[in-house]
Amino acid sequence: MSAILEVRDLEVAFRVGPLVRRRSLLAVAGVSFDVRPGETFALVGESGSGKTTLARAVNRLQRVSAGSVNFEGRRIDTMSRGRIRPMRQRMAMMFQDPVGSLSPRMRVGDAVTEPFRIHKVEASLKEETERLLSLVGLPADFANRYPHQLSGGQARRVGVARAIALRPKLIIADEPTAGLDVSVQGEVLNLLNDLRSRLGLAMIIITHNLSVVSHVADRMAVMYLGRFVETGPTEEIFRAPKHPYTAALLSANPEPDPDKKSARISLPAEVPSLLARPAGCEFHTRCPWARDRCAKAAPRSEGRNRLVACHFPLAPNASPPEKETVQ
Amino acid sequence: MSELEILDLSVSFATGGGDLQALNKVTFKVPEHRIVGIVGESGCGKSTLIDAILGLLADNGRIDGGEILFEGRDLTKLGAKELREIRGPRISTVFQDPMGALNPVFRVGRQMTNIQYRSGLSKREKARRAAEMLRRVRMPDPEAALSRYPHEFSGGMKQRIAIAMAMMMEPALLIADEPTTALDATLEAATIDLLLELQNQIGCSMLYVSHHMGVIAELCDEVVVMYAGEVVERGTTRQVFLKPRHPYTQRLIECDPARLAGRAEKLPTIPGDIPDLRARPSGCVFAARCSLREEVCGEPPPENVREGHMARCHRAAEN
Amino acid sequence: MLNYAVKRLGLSVVIVSVAMLLLFSMIYLIPGDPAAVALGPRATEAMREALRIKMGLDKPVWIQFWNFFASAWQGDLGREVLSDRPVAQVVLEQLPYTLALIASGIIWSVAIGIPLGCWAAVRRSSFADRLVGVLSVAVIAVPSFVIAIYALLIFAVTLRWLPAIGAGEPGDPGSQIVHLILPSLAVGLGWVGYIARMVRASMLESLEASHIRTARAFGLPDRQITYQYALKIAILPTVTLLGVGIGQMLSSAVFAEIVFARPGVGKLVYDAILTRNYPLVTGAVLVTTVLFVLINLLADLIVGALDPRVRSGF
Amino acid sequence: MFAADSDAVGAFRRIFAEPLGGLGIVLVVAMIAGAVFADLLAGADPFRISPRDRFLDPSLDHLLGTDHLGRDLFSRVLHGGRIALSVALFSTAASLAIGIVLGLIAGFGPRWLDNILILLFDAIKSFPTVMLALALVTLFGPSLTAVIVVVVLVNVPGYARIIRTQTLALKSAEFVAAAESMGAGTARVLRVHILPNVIGPLLILASMDIPVVIAIEAGMSFLGLGVRPPTPSWGAILNDGFTAIRDTPWIAVAGGLPIILTTLGFTFLGETLRDVFDPRLRGRG
After folding, report:
1. Residue A288: pLDDT above 60?
2. Could you tell me which chain C residue has the CA closest to the CA of D249?
3. Which residue of A has its CA nearest to D196?
4. CA triple D144-D148-D154, angle to 5 deg
5. pLDDT attached to residue D250
6. Chains in contact with B via at least 3 Cβ–Cβ pairs below 8 Å
7. Range 95-154 of D in CB contact (< 8 A) with A
8. Which residues lie below 8 Å from residue D59, measured CB to CB, with a gap of 6+?
9. Which class in CATH covers the domain with range A5-224?
């Protein structure tokens, strides 16, 4: 099946600093991926990895500096503002803060039907409100509430209802479980999974939490300093991560089991600044496996279905080499 | 012997809509040189508990009953001055928010020397100790760091400074309130290693508060599970995580997505909300959300203890 | 810090320049002939023409503006109509009186306002706090010229405790201070309220900050936390407010000088309007504007010196 | 804005529950009633000159006595309220309208336009209020229009800055990004998602500025730069009183008292409004 979204060599640059010494930094430094209909694709990374910027660029909330974005076979990164608006009926976005992404002085009922008013879609707004709220499992009387009267989980459901209002083909969800208690996270993920299979949606889920990914995503990409370091089917990556950064992320998510004293891969040093990208492999400053070559040459992404940007991909269950302890 | 012992502690806040009972008869111990984890979701009373131990409850909060025994003294009975002498030198705290934990308009060095005001050391000696402590938390160029302002550091580095400040006091008890929640996962590991290493060197006890069960399981010797201001389960880490006896703990562990290796069709959840703490249910606080609920749950559940493993549940005897 | 100061100074220069442009536009936009207005109805056409050429009004507008702009930056504000003395000199002669009035107003409003605000913040929600709150609001609300007249009525006319007019004998500090009391009360009373309120509010805000919790968790003495850790942050908005407030005090000073018949820039301008001495009016407006901009610059530099975040974030 | 209609009654109750709010409402209502029903209440004609009745002491005929032209002071005070109130309402409304538009442009428009507007606001703000008034009146001559122009010039920069700051803060808020991601255009984002969230605090601050506007009008009239005689204005009455302060001090009292009571009334009301609707604004200038 052909992809609903094709992203090729996408770059997003920001200009920072005072006028006289303005510098450019690449928040997204050339990434490519496809999302197929009905598929969930996860973007995983920590703060500053560029995952949110990438999502905003795909949605055209952020200007693209290079590369291309094709949605439903049409190139959208060069489309005019007026032409892009109708596209947004079919590509919905959900933002991190469940309460903060709802207009504070707009009632839930108005919020979920806002897409109808924006795109002047003829519909009985009252019926649509009821339909959407029941789809996400909220009672109809929630339509009269204001966002600040909702719990995080409820607000997240309202956000989901709004996203699916015009039956989009693709939903981009930025940290759908952020700020939610563990016992509520499951509800939201179940809801997303359920809607995806019922409505046949494609989804991009952006998260720093790997355990979220394993339950919802078919394929995933791990981002570091604006690049993909590893891409592939979620199950395979979870079973045997090949990039050291992926391995470190996976190990940083211990199971609640005291007998499995996990071998955490402890990454030293701070994340480098985007204004001073390390030479060679950009992860080498923090990589426990780094060798001489890593500081000199940048690795290329290799592989077909499974791409890894590393000179020395890990064998399954590799553990970091012992460091000489200097005391 | 216990470093900290909390007995039947109850705390409430006066609010516009009536008294809110934030803690209800909380009891647990932190033995010497051990790490005790407190786990619970939002609204479980973790923060109130820390404030109560430190004597820093908000103006509208009050201790309704119970004792906080530390080094043989009941902290609830101490005056402000005596509490100040314990806070810092004897009980140090690392807070959740590294961004806000340091005063933005004073240099790091000044803040680190200020807290040594009781030591009687010379100014130079205080600065030397501060730099030494920064070196121990692996701050690059510690001397230079002393003359910088907090906003010049990243979040991870600020948290290291906060840890250095807490450990510099060589306390008997370290309270760590979600110290890694605001940090990235790959920095979390290093931060926890650092805390463990320093705790070993200094030989203090630690009270580690987190909502992250994986971390608690990995780090702690004993675990206290809190729900709606009550301790619902308490025991060694192995007991609580391997054989949970309270339905809430059982469900909470099930819900942790890290536990499920493969892709699950339906993730487990706990439907419902915590009860309104202004009108606490007379029976079990978890009953409204519990799938095992029966009639007896309308009565206050007993503390069921077996081999030091406590669960506050009518049906705990079955587990 | 130097970097910050230079940038901030540059901004001030730009602001003053724009203000000059505005002032010039206002003069230029007056309906009618400035020369005719300045000379009054009895002047002959020849006199007007002579003045027009003297004022450069026959030249194109941008040259007029450039002349105005360039000479103003060199301190040349033109000559006043009555005595033909340089406007800058006349204004600068009167400026010390106004500065003394404002300075005394600030000094005692700060001396009372800051402790009062701290005191109210520490005793939050007490009766004393509420009383301070109501009184602050009340003194802020009542306009300064009403305070001036009522003070004159009560203390000078009825009770006869204090002198009603003038600035006191030259060379006699005692008499000058006595003559300052009522005017500075009129100028400063409202500011006691402003400062007390601002200090209280920002103290409460900074006492709730999480670094204060950290400081308390390390057992620092309450006194040090309140007056060092919290006050240093709480004082920042007050400094900014004072910088802005001096503009309002300049306004109050105009009224105080008129009501108490004190010499000063305000009285100078008022008299100049009554005698149609327009170059003097625009010159005095420009001088006070520059003064106000300089004071704001000073306030921002103080804030920059106290708060490292401001310095680096500029 | 102030939430829904059903909350309005409750809010009114909460204002009255505060002692200062109650006092504020009473003073403001009394002032408005006095101004609106001035002809009914006063009885005497505020313009009628009667040389025989100069400087009369207060009596039942003349509740506040008479001035140097023998005009009834009570009547002049009530009619002065009309001037004060109409100037306050008209110039505040004008300042709000201009301030909101300029603030939205600065906050949501291109960066260079924002810089220019901010510079312009700062330059206007850098004139001390009275100096600006004096300069304007010198050029345009004393009139009610001059007073209104001064008030608008003084208020607009502040209002526009508030709207700008809040708009800038909201511009990066997630709900605004959400609206854009749904395809909403700039006009809709501003009207539906930004304006309702920024206008509440501004209206409260503007209501607290009403006493300041009244003070500016009275102050300019006091200096003889505002309303032209013989139109009654509190400032002009105060000036009459000031001229005769040694012999007939009650004229000064009569001119000052309505100014004090009105500014206090509006201030107490504004403060309570703010505490009830938006406590976060507390302590702002």
Report:
1. yes
2. C153
3. A105
4. 145
5. 79
6. A, C
7. none
8. D65
9. alpha beta
Residues of chain C with pLDDT under 50: 314
**Alpha helices in chain D, H assignment, sequence order:** 5-17, 19-36, 38-42, 73-108, 111-125, 129-140, 144-171, 174-181, 186-188, 195-222, 234-243, 249-277
DSSP H helices in D2-52: 5-17, 19-36, 38-42
Our CA-based measurement puts residue A86 at a distance from the nearest CA of chain B, in whole angstroms, of: 34
Give dist(CA D256, CA C259) in Å, integer: 14
Burial of B159 (0-12, 13-18, 19+ CB in 10 A): buried
How close, in Å, is residue B265 to chain C by CA atoms? 42
Q: Which two tokens stand for residue A137?
A: 């499992």
**Cβ–Cβ gap D174/A96 under 8 Å:** yes
Q: Which residue of A has its CA nearest to B238?
A: A258
Ordered by start, the domain boundaries in chain A are 5-224, 240-327
Report d(CA A9, CA A310) in Å as an integer. 18
In the chain, the amino acid numbered A99 is V
| Mean of pLDDT over chain B | 89
Domains and CATH numbers, chain D: 14-281 (1.10.3720.10)
CB atoms within 10 A of CB A125: 16
| Residues of chain A contacting residue D181, judged by C-beta atoms under 8 Å apart | 59, 61, 88, 92-93, 95
Partner-chain contact B237 A255, CB within 8 Å: no
What token pair was written down for B82? 């005596």
SS3 D83: helix
Q: Hey, which residues 96-135 in chain D have their CB within 8 Å of chain C?
A: 119-120, 122-132, 134-135
User: What do you get for the CA distance between the two ends of chain D, in Å?
Assistant: 22
Cα–Cα distance for residue pair B131/D257, rounded to 1 Å: 65
Q: Could you tell me the two tokens for D264?
A: 């206090």
CA–CA min distance B219, chain A (Å): 8
What is the residue extent of each domain of chain B?
2-90+171-318
Enumerate the H helices of chain B as residue ranges.
46-54, 80-86, 108-114, 123-136, 142-146, 155-168, 185-202, 213-219, 237-242, 247-255
**C1 CA to chain D: closest CA distance, Å?**
23
pLDDT for position A327: 35
Chain-centroid distance of CA D236 in Å reads 18
Confidence of residue A19 (pLDDT cuts 50, 70, 90): low
Contact C219 B162 (CB under 8 A): no
**Chain A residues touching D179 at Cβ < 8 A:** 103, 114, 118
Q: Do D183 and A114 touch (CB under 8 A)?
A: no
Contacts with B56 from chain C: Cβ below 8 Å:
213, 216-217
The alpha carbon of residue D137 is apart from the nearest alpha carbon of chain C, in Å, by 9
* Closest to A94 in 3D by CA, of A65, A115, A117: A115
Q: How far is CA A298 from each of CA A8, A226, A269, A307, A312, rounded to the nearest angstrom? A: 20, 14, 20, 15, 12
The rounded Cα D75 to chain-centroid distance in angstroms is 22
The answer, for D261 touching chain C at a CB cutoff of 8 Å, is: no
> What are the structural domains of chain C?
96-313 (1.10.3720.10)
With beta carbons less than 8 A apart as the criterion, state whether D24 and D275 touch.
no
Residue of D nearest to C289 (CA): D127
Write down the CATH number for the domain with range B2-90+171-318. Answer: 3.40.50.300
Chain centroid to Cα A163, Å, comes to 16
CA D15/CA D20 separation, integer angstroms: 8
Q: Write down the residue that tokens 């004072």 correspond to.
A: C242
- What ipTM describes this predicted complex? 0.80
Q: Which of A253-267, B270-284, D122-136, D260-274 has the lowest mean pLDDT?
A: A253-267
Q: Identify the helix (H) or strand (E) that includes residue B234.
A: strand B230-236
pLDDT band (50, 70, 90) for residue A324: very low
How much is the average pLDDT of A73-95?
90
